């Protein structure tokens, strides 16, 4: 994918997560300190991350606090401003707020990762369109605060696909370049373990919608429920989910451990390619 600044992301790609939050479910608080956050992002690039995703609002199920614009800006901007000149990899800003996205883009972010698929803030689509930014459109229901109450579907795969198709069309209508749209089934967002597994199993159908697909399974609760909750079980459970995602046609995996994910991605992509010949 060619970004507005001319940089190209080769797919499949690894997106490394940088949560500058006090309450993210897997690494909350660890990177709230500016210098540690910067060092961690540089380390993730070294380990092979192709994109660094910076977020200042946790979406943790149960009790994640909504964050005011000013607070979110004060968390992410010092880190983003320090990183933009130092990273070769593109930066994505994980936010639902247009004001945060606009400032992040000014400072050098090229991708807007919006878990509300541009629905939370009416000003988001115009901001993205004006900047010719790439956007990640993710499926969820309810707010970040209460999404687990909405995990009811007749046919989760069909409903997620219909939603993402509609949001991609809305994004295009708002002026966002078609070739910069990425769709994401929103693993863990208003979804039970069964829903997450159904979506991972149906990734070829999602990829057939016609946009690159991002999958974020890393360390999520359904992995802990299925694989076990020790660090090693979570690590291998994540690797298994990411292997399947890449083999089934995902273009980007969003992960906390890019070093491991890069090896997983290379192996799964090689197997996928050999099958395609
Ligand atoms: N998952 C999280 C946050 N942002 N963005 C996309 N596009 N897809 C995802 O699956 C996704 C996301 C939640 O994970 P994490 O960043 O680890 O935790 P928190 O939201 O608590 O910061």
Keywords for this entry:
277 residues, TIM Barrel, eight-stranded parallel beta sheet, 8 strands, globular, binds 6-hydroxymethylpterin-diphosphate
Secondary structure: elements and pairs:
Layout: E1 13-19, H1 34-46, E2 51-55, H2 69-83, E3 91-94, H3 98-106, E4 111-114, H4 124-131, E5 134-138, H5 156-173, E6 181-184, H6 193-201, H7 203-207, E7 214-215, H8 221-227, H9 231-247, E8 252-255, H10 258-276
Parallel strand pairs: 1-2, 1-8, 2-3, 3-4, 4-5, 5-6, 7-8
Ligands: 6-hydroxymethylpterin-diphosphate
Portion of residues in helices? 40-55%
CATH topology of the domain at 13-204: TIM Barrel
> What kind of sheet is the major sheet?
8 strands, parallel
Residues in β-strands, percent: 5-15%
**Which CATH-level-2 architecture of the domain at 13-204?**
Alpha-Beta Barrel
**Poorly predicted sequence stretches spanning 5 or more consecutive residues:** none
Shape: globular
Strand neighbour order, sheet with most strands: 6-5-4-3-2-1-8-7
Using the CA coordinates, give the radius of gyration. Answer: 17 Å
In short:
This protein is α/β, with parallel strands linked by helices and 277 residues long. It has helices spanning 34-46, 69-83, 98-106, 124-131, 156-173, 193-201, 203-207, 221-227, 231-247, 258-276; strands at 13-19, 51-55, 91-94, 111-114, 134-138, 181-184, 214-215, 252-255.
């Amino acid at each position: 994918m060619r970004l507005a600044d001319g940089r190209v992301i080769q797919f499949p790609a690894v997106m490394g997560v940088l949560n500058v939050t006090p309450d993210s479910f897997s690494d909350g608080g660890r990177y709230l300190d500016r210098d540690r956050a910067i060092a961690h992002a540089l380390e993730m690039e070294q380990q092979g991350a192709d994109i660094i995703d910076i977020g200042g609002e946790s979406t943790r199920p149960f009790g994640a606090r909504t964050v005011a614009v000013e607070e979110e800006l004060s968390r992410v901007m010092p880190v983003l401003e320090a990183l933009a000149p130092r990273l070769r990899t593109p930066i994505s800003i994980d936010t639902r707020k247009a004001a945060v996205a606009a400032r992040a883009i000014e400072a050098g972010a090229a991708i807007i990762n919006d878990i509300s698929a541009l629905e939370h803030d009416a000003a988001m689509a115009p901001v993205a369109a004006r900047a010719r930014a790439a956007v990640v459109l993710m499926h969820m229901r309810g707010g970040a605060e209460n999404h687990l109450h909405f995990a009811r579907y007749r046919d989760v795969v069909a409903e997620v696909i219909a939603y993402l198709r509609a949001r991609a069309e809305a994004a295009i209508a708002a002026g966002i370049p078609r070739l910069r749209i990425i769709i994401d089934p929103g693993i863990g967002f208003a979804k039970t373990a069964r829903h997450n597994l159904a979506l991972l199993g149906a990734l070829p159908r999602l990829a057939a919608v016609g946009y690159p697909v991002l999958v974020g399974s890393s360390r999520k609760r359904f992995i802990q429920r299925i694989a076990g909750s020790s660090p090693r079980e979570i690590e291998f459970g994540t690797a298994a989910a990411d292997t399947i995602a890449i083999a089934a046609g995902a273009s980007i995996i969003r992960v906390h451990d890019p070093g491991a994910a890069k090896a997983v991605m290379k192996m799964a992509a090689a197997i996928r390619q050999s099958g395609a010949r």
